[in-house]
Amino acid sequence: xxxxxxxxxxxxxxxxxxxxxxxxxxxxxxxxxxxxxxxxxxxxxxxxxxxxxxxxxxxxxxxxxxxxxxxxxxxxxxxxxxxxxxxxxxxxxx
Length: 94
Prior knowledge:
By secondary structure, this protein is α+β, with helices and mostly antiparallel strands. The chain has one domain (about 5-80). The chain has two helices and four strands. The chain has helices spanning about 5-20, 75-80, and strands at about 35, 40-45, 55-65, 70-75. Strands 1, 2, 3 and 4 form a four-stranded antiparallel β-sheet that branches. A hairpin with a 5-residue loop joins β3 and β4 (about 70-75). The protein is globular and about 35 Å long.
């Protein structure tokens, strides 16, 4: 995954605004949020009895409410912000 630069962070904010992801916090109704400085990778679990640490995953960013700390995840693929796949590379993230 590409490092989160200030330019990438701005692009994420712009994309969330374009997608109308601008509602107040669902917990406290606050309108002020912070985009975390980094990416998150949620590994898709195939069952509940064994925890997998690698495999297909959903790369995302997290926006945190500045008042109550509620965290919302946004999948980079749905936002159109995934880097292009490299030829011959293994990009199982969906």
